[in-house]
Each structure stands twice: as C-alpha cells, then as structure tokens.
Amino acid sequence: MVATFLLPLLLLSTLLPVAFPLPPRPPVRCGGSGGAGGDRAGCVLSNAYGAWSSDRADCPVSAVAYPASEADVVAVVADASAKNMPVKVVSGFAHTIPKLACPGNGSSGAASSLLISTARYDGVAVDAAARTVTADAGAPLRAVIDAAEASGLSLTAAPYWEGVSVGGLVSTGSHGSSWWGRGGAVHDHVVALRLVVPAGAADGWAMVVALRRGDALFNAALVSLGLLGVISKVTLALEPRFKRSISYEYRDDSTFQDDFARHAANHEFADITWYPSQHKAIYRIDDRMPLNATGDGVNDFIGFQSTLIAVSSGIRALETALEASRNVKGKCKMAAAEIAAKRLVGNGLRGAGGRLFTGYPVVGFQGRMQTSGSCARSPPTDTLSACPWDPRYKGLFFYESTAMFSPAVRFRDFVLDVKRLRDVDPDSMCGVDAYNGLLVRFVKASEAYLGQPEDTVVVDFNYYRASDGSSPRLSQDVWEEVEQLAFVKHGARPHWAKNRLAAFRGVRGKYPSWDKFGAAKRQLDPRGLFDSRWSDEVVGGEEQLPKADGCALDGRCVCSEDRHCSPSKGYYCRPGLVYSEARVCRYSVSQLA
C-alpha cells in the first residue's frame, strides 16, 4: 500500500510542470527597520531547514547590516571593531547546518552583536582574457556560472546544490566530485580573494587583506569558516567552455567496495549512489565533451526541484506515521518507490528545451549540467510549490551526515563494515535509502589548511529527523553506529557545513595544518570578534559537558548512560552491533535486554 501511494506522488512532483512555486524564505527576519542603508535591528537568523544541528532555536541578533560594496563591508566591520562587537556573516541562502553564522553567544540577552548579510553584495565580473571570474561574496553560484558561460568559459568545479553564495561555498569547503585536474572542491580553483578583517584605531578599525595563490595567508583564507573576517571578493579560474555527458548505470553492490577508485579514475566527474537496503549501486558516468558534441540537455535533479507542497507534506506525514507505528517494512517500500521514480525520470536529467528524460546519455553545456537547484530560483508570486524541505510547510525534515575518508582504503573498510551491519538487519537501512542512499563523491588533496589533506572519498547521507528533538527515531541505533564507524573507527573528517554536532569530536586532530590555521586566525582576528559559542562547538571538537538528558537523540552527544537516550520510550544506551566500541540509542522492550 505504501509503494502504491508513494510512487504516484513522486512522479506527480517530477513529471508535471510545476506552477506557482514559492521562493525560499530569507534567513534573516526582523521586527524593526533601521536607516536608509537597509540595516535592521531586533532580528533572528535561521537556516533554510528551520533548525540547526547545535540546537533548534533561531539565532537572535541585535543588528543586521546589508553592505552593497566592499567599502560598505569595511565600514560595518570597522564600526563593530571599534565597539568590540561579535560579528558573523550570512548569505542570502543559509544552507549551512551547524550554527556557524550565529554571532556571540546567541542568547537573547546579548548586549550587542552584528550579523553581516551579503545578500545585496552580489556583483560578478568575467575577465575573458585571463580566464577568471571575480565575484562579490554574496553572488549566487548560478549567477557566476551563467556569466562565465556567456563569455565562452566554464567553471570546472561546483557543488551539486546551486543555492549557495560564492563566499559561503568557498569558506565551508563545498565541492562537486572529481579526482582529475585541480579536483572537485571549488576553493581549489580560487586564484585570489580579498578579506575584510578587524584592525586597531591607527588603521581605521578595519582593513582589506588582498591574497593571491602563493601568499602566506592564502591557504588559511580558502576554507576559513567565517573565523578570519569577511570574505569580500573571490576570483576563480575558468576554462574554455565545454559540454558534459551523463549516464547512470545500475549495478549490484557486491563489488562496490572494490570498484569505486577505478570509477573515479576513469570518469572526470564520477560519483556513485549506494542503496544498501536494495543492494544497488548507481554509477554516474560523467565526462567532459567537446563543444560540438550533440546535445543541449539539463541536469535538474529531482530532489532540488520545486515540489507541490501537498506532495512534500504528504510524504513527511507518511514517514512520520511509519515512525510512530515502528513500521520498518513501510520505510523499505518508500525506498523502493524512491529508486523506481528516480530511474524512470533519469534522476532529473532532461533533454533540450527542458524536455522529459528519454534515455542516456544526456549531453549538455557544463553550466547546465554541473549543478542544479531550480527550487531556489522560484519567483515570489508563486504559491503552490516550494523546495521540499521548506520549513514553512511541514515538508521533508532530515539530518545530513557527510564523512570524508582518506586514504581511500579507509572508505573500503567502512563499506565492508556497513555491509556487515546491513546483514544483521537489512530493513534497518531503508530509512536512508528512502532519501538518496549514500552519495559517494571524490575530492582531490588540497593545500587549504582546512581542506582535505589527501585525495578523499566523501559520503553524504540524509535520514529522518523528528519534529520534536526529544523523540527517538526508528532504527536510530543503526545510523548512530554508521556515524561512529565513519568518524571514530575509520577516522573520517566531517564536512564543515553539515553533520550533527557529535561528528565534530576530535576534529582538530584530523587536520595536519590546524596549527597553521590557528596562527593565521590569531594574526587576522586577535580579539576573536569572529568567534562565537556556536563555532567553538564545531571547531573546538570537544563534547559539551555535562551531557544533558536526551542529548544523543538529536546528535548533540554520544550516549554513555541510558538517560542520554530516551528510557521512558524504550531507548537505552547500548554497544554497536558490529562496532562494539560504539555507543548508540537502541530500542528495547526491556532495560535489561
């Protein structure tokens, strides 16, 4: 019954043209207005999902500034510096899951804190002769790609989701997938950037630091997490325009752990999506093509399309009902329906003019194939559909865990452990497969201090998040064990812009150049104006003590006592099923079981 109900919903949301989609809500919402410059007072900040990983509370800020030029950025940083105010930066998108953009201690009683929004600082300029594009920090990725393509050039690397700003994606290490050339991380294609940092009175309280590849501070500034100052402008290297050819090949997953490296070596933009409960691995055959190759296709990934609000809220309601009734078989039917729908529509690939998918390969210009996110570009007049996770409409609500493995052999060992865990109870894996399985991508070694120190395999997976942070979840113990297999046993690094708080334990020890980054931070922001309680939780890598009751349910801690789970609802702290050193919240009819 579940599959019969779900498959038509999924197809309805992907095959029909969507009328009246709503744009995402702005991340900053204010009660009062300030001067003519557009500054605001009495505001709150939230991310695009309506909940952070650190907690679920909005971030109150006493003032928000909206600079429109580098001179404006210098002025607002100087004013905050003179007043010794905590400062953070947010774009017009705010898809970061940790609470990195919340200034100060984030409490409503904070005397003063400044949030700088780059939503209006969005210029883009292409230098065709130099094959570069220079973008203001708030420039949308889509605007940068379109400007480059219009000049006969292409941006080689981009994250799969286009609803990000240039400053945000560079500062958090956002990436696509490639072990070729300079690799899949966008920051490794940066050739220059400009930072605005606090200064003393003699220097006007703020200054611009211009950096180029090879400069002493350049590698610290690339993935800086907003801790060094405000990224003002970014210059990215471009290539002559080219096309891409994409096909998806469906295989049994029996040799997946032995095939992934060869796949990445053979195809420039390769990835793999693994559905462990279905014993399937979907190989993306993705290669560069010359401009004269036939095809004008589009990559419009179905998970990033505007979805009818009734569909996304219906899927969420179904999943919540399955959770409440502990119906794991229903989750498995959802997973099967999800894979069937994606296969039918080519995962969102379209032919020329946006025509429906008719078969592989789909060939199109790099700028139309490398990233997607049509729901982020919805006009404000539309009312019937939205991004499926839009928090205003009780749609999809999920965790996103991303683990980065190097050397690659660690990923192979991780896959084998996950297969052993699957063999204990195959149905327990269905909850992740009902979203997008485990997406496997490839990122090349980086010189950035907080980038990847070796060629890396990146695994990203989404799974159900309860509307109430105190509610346990179906098969919760399995995904907590998968997290601990990744981040503890196999030493994976967490993606800076994703993950639950527990994934960041011990993170400093996983970056060989952490001390170099710390030295750069002390040089550029000696007073710690760009620090906050929330960013300290992430980069500090320390588990918050004492642990609160129920802290493991939302990933704020790893349980060590039953009270960190939910004993009143039958969830107790237990060892892992495969990784015995793991500690997970497992359902049991008896505390003694």
Automatic annotation (TrEMBL):
<comment type="similarity">
    <text>Belongs to the oxygen-dependent FAD-linked oxidoreductase family.</text>
</comment>
<dbReference type="InterPro" id="IPR016167">
    <property type="entry name" value="FAD-bd_PCMH_sub1"/>
</dbReference>
<dbReference type="InterPro" id="IPR010030">
    <property type="entry name" value="GULO_Plant"/>
</dbReference>
<dbReference type="InterPro" id="IPR016166">
    <property type="entry name" value="FAD-bd_PCMH"/>
</dbReference>
<dbReference type="GO" id="GO:0050105">
    <property type="term" value="F:L-gulonolactone oxidase activity"/>
</dbReference>
<dbReference type="GO" id="GO:0019853">
    <property type="term" value="P:L-ascorbic acid biosynthetic process"/>
</dbReference>
<dbReference type="InterPro" id="IPR006094">
    <property type="entry name" value="Oxid_FAD_bind_N"/>
</dbReference>
<feature type="domain" description="FAD-binding PCMH-type">
    <location>
        <begin position="57"/>
        <end position="241"/>
    </location>
</feature>
<dbReference type="Pfam" id="PF04030">
    <property type="entry name" value="ALO"/>
</dbReference>
<dbReference type="Pfam" id="PF22906">
    <property type="entry name" value="GULLO2-like_3rd"/>
</dbReference>
<keyword id="KW-0732">Signal</keyword>
<feature type="signal peptide">
    <location>
        <begin position="1"/>
        <end position="21"/>
    </location>
</feature>
<keyword id="KW-0560">Oxidoreductase</keyword>
<dbReference type="InterPro" id="IPR007173">
    <property type="entry name" value="ALO_C"/>
</dbReference>
<dbReference type="InterPro" id="IPR036318">
    <property type="entry name" value="FAD-bd_PCMH-like_sf"/>
</dbReference>
<dbReference type="InterPro" id="IPR016169">
    <property type="entry name" value="FAD-bd_PCMH_sub2"/>
</dbReference>
<comment type="pathway">
    <text>Cofactor biosynthesis; L-ascorbate biosynthesis.</text>
</comment>
<keyword id="KW-0060">Ascorbate biosynthesis</keyword>
<dbReference type="GO" id="GO:0016020">
    <property type="term" value="C:membrane"/>
</dbReference>
<protein>
    <recommendedName>
        <fullName>L-gulonolactone oxidase</fullName>
        <ecNumber>1.1.3.8</ecNumber>
    </recommendedName>
</protein>
<dbReference type="GO" id="GO:0003885">
    <property type="term" value="F:D-arabinono-1,4-lactone oxidase activity"/>
</dbReference>
<dbReference type="InterPro" id="IPR055154">
    <property type="entry name" value="GULLO2-like_C"/>
</dbReference>
<dbReference type="Pfam" id="PF01565">
    <property type="entry name" value="FAD_binding_4"/>
</dbReference>
<dbReference type="InterPro" id="IPR050432">
    <property type="entry name" value="FAD-linked_Oxidoreductases_BP"/>
</dbReference>
<dbReference type="GO" id="GO:0071949">
    <property type="term" value="F:FAD binding"/>
</dbReference>
